[in-house]
Amino acid sequence: MKNYLKELANQGITSADLDKITEAMAGRAEKTGFSHPHSVYHTLAVDLTLGMLDTMQEAEQNLDKTHSLKQWLAIVMDVEL
Predict the structure, then answer these.
(1) Which terminal CB of the chain, N or C, has fewer other CB atoms within 10 Å?
(2) DSSP state of 64
(3) What is the chain's mean pLDDT, rounded?
(4) How many angstroms separate the CA atoms of 26 and 48, rounded?
(5) Which residue stretches of the chain are H helix?
């Protein structure tokens, strides 16, 4: 398992969750009349999810309580996991 997958798994995020985010972004892109290969959206899904993890951890440190990573992803990406 790649390091990022282990880090995300610790927060309850699975490969299937990343696939769901990837599919959602690819579907929205296709509606524009142009889309990239799915690997581009998968990379973006991973990067955004890791960014949300950083946001979650920072908020938790500064505010003592915050949304879960899945909740943050639902808020930002409009994808229920």
Answers:
(1) N
(2) S
(3) 92
(4) 14
(5) 3-9, 15-30, 38-63, 69-77
Q: How many CA atoms lie within 13 A of 80 on its CB side?
A: 0
| CA–CA gap between residue 42 and residue 23 (Å, rounded) | 8
Question: Residue 36 in 3-state DSSP?
Answer: coil
Residue carrying structure tokens 């409009």: 78
Judged against a pLDDT cut of 80, whether residue 75 lies above it is answered with yes
Cα–Cα distances in angstroms (integers) from residue 58 to residues 1, 51, 62, 64, 65, in the given order: 25, 11, 6, 9, 10
Predicted TM-score (pTM) of the model is 0.87
Cβ atoms 38, 26 nearer than 8 A:
yes
pLDDT-derived band at 64, boundaries 50, 70, 90:
confident
